[in-house]
Amino acid sequence: MCGRFANDAKTDELIREYVAEGGKPEDWWKSWAGAYSIAPTMDAPIVRDRGEGRILELVRWDWQKPANRPKGAPIINARMEKLATGFWAPAFSAARCIVPMRGYFEWTGEKGDKTPHFLHGDGLLSAAGLTWSMELPDGERSRCFVVITREARDASGEVHDRMPAFLTPDTWDPWLTPEKLTGERKVETLAMLEHTSSDVAATIREHVVDRKVNNSRTADATDPSLIEPVATG
C-alpha cells in the first residue's frame, strides 16, 4: 500500500517536469514548499487534464466513503485489480491523475517497534492516481485523490506486498486524457499501467530512515532528514 509519501519538489520543478499550467500564484503556488511526510487527509499536488492541457492542483489525499462504509480510516488507495468495475469504475473511466512523489514510506517489524523504509528512484516518481470531488464532514466540497496500488515488485516487495503503480513520461498523456474509457480502452489502459509500473518498479531502491517519521502527527514535514538513510545494525 502507500500510506505516506514525500514530495519535496517546489512548484517550479513540478511545472518543468509535467509541463503544467499550474493555476494562479495566489491560489497555492506560494504556500507549497514541498513536504517530506505527506499523510492521509493532507493536501498534495496532483497533475490532471481537464481537456485544455495538464494542470497542477493542490488536492486532499482522501476519498468520500461509500454509504455502506461511513466510518473508519480514510480511503487513500485504490487497488489496480479493482479499477475497471464497481466502486472505482467511474473515476477510472473519467478522472485519472498523476501524483508526483520523491518516494514513499513502508514499515517492517511488529506494532510498536516498526522500522521505517524510504523507497525511491533517481528523481520524481509519477504515481498513477484517481481524483474526484468529495463532501467533507463540515458539508463543504473538496477535490480529493487516491494513489493506485499494485502487487509489489523488486525492492518494494521486500518491504511490503503492495506498492504504488507508476507511470513513465511516454504514458502521461494517454493516462491523463479526459476522454472516458469504455470497453477495450479500459483493458488497454490497465495493460499499459501494468507494463509501465513494472518497468519503474525495477528502478526502485530502499533504505532505512529515522523512526521519527513513524508518527505522522509529530513528524516535521519540512525536515529533509526524514528521507535520509540511517545506520542499521
Automatic annotation (TrEMBL):
The keyword Disulfide bond does not apply. Its EC number is 3.4.-.-. InterPro entries: SRAP, SRAP-like. It is an enzyme of class 3 (hydrolase). Pfam families: SRAP. Belongs to the SOS response-associated peptidase family. This is Abasic site processing protein. It comes from Microbacterium algeriense.
